Amino acid sequence: MRAPFEPNRFGERGMHDFTPDAERQRPGCGAETEPHGPQSELADIVARPDGGKAIGVGETDTCARCGTFLRGEADGLRVDGVLYCTACGVRPDVDYLEAYRASLWGKRDGWVWFIGLTALYSLLQALVVAASSRLLVGSGLDGIPSETIWRFVGRGAVELATCAVAVAYFLGRPWARLGFVGVFAMQVSSTFVTSPPGMRGFVLVASVLSLPVLLFIVNGTRQRLFFKLEVSRAKLKASWEVYANNPMARQGLMLALLSLAVPPLGPLALGMSIVGLRRVDPAARPPIGRKRQAIAGMVFSSLSSAVSAGWLALKLFK
After folding, report:
1. Residue numbers of the domain that contains 216
2. Are 80 and 124 found together in one domain?
3. How far apart are CA 26 and CA 28, in angstroms?
4. Is 291 helix (H, G, I), strand (E, B) or coil?
5. Whether 146 and 202 share a structural domain
6. How many CB atoms lie within 10 A of CB 131?
């Protein structure tokens, strides 16, 4: 019988290859050797999608969406720590934060339109001040304190400055963000000076409470995107969670809370909350959440709907 390690008549060794350890070294434990075994055979048959040479199994990765073989980040894009091929990495459902950024880049939101309307209000105020000043001049300046005249002039100047800055804000001029805070301070000072002594404390308290709201508006993520300023992905994520993550569930909850005061809105809020709950899918891309809000909306809207149904039943069977 032929020994299992002896060559056969074709010059090959049998299945039981008892090659001494001195002749066959393990990778990483000595001199470099050629790969052998199943990994070597698989590396020879796995080819790159672009028709290039074969990729070793230890050197490849695959797209998390379509499974295309990639040679690391050189052939793909990494989105939120996950590797995708170039075609999948730019899809709006994969890099949904960049798609959210693009959808708001240079776009006016409700606050921008509100500030644009303040320009019209300030212009109207300036015209009123100018008309009042003209009446004072027409009636003669004798007996009118100079302090009163300067108050009219200062108030008109503040209103014109507010109008100009608000128009610049509406047009997306970056300096208008800081300028609007400046005219707010001017408005507070002007109102404080022209108010009766008994009202000045109220004006001061209202101004202090309004300042954080103003800073939140002008420095918010959507405002920065409107002015085409860079925003980190963390802030994009936070803004997306508030405004774009399952808005049906959020709106259903808001309407359900309102229905507690206006019960006829209960059925509509209940329907919106049910739709929002059915859309919840944390495993989707992008992930769809707000499950708790949808459930809360269903609870509150069910209560208001029950109240509406009870009131209607009493009216019908009275």
Report:
1. 110-226
2. no
3. 6
4. helix
5. yes
6. 10
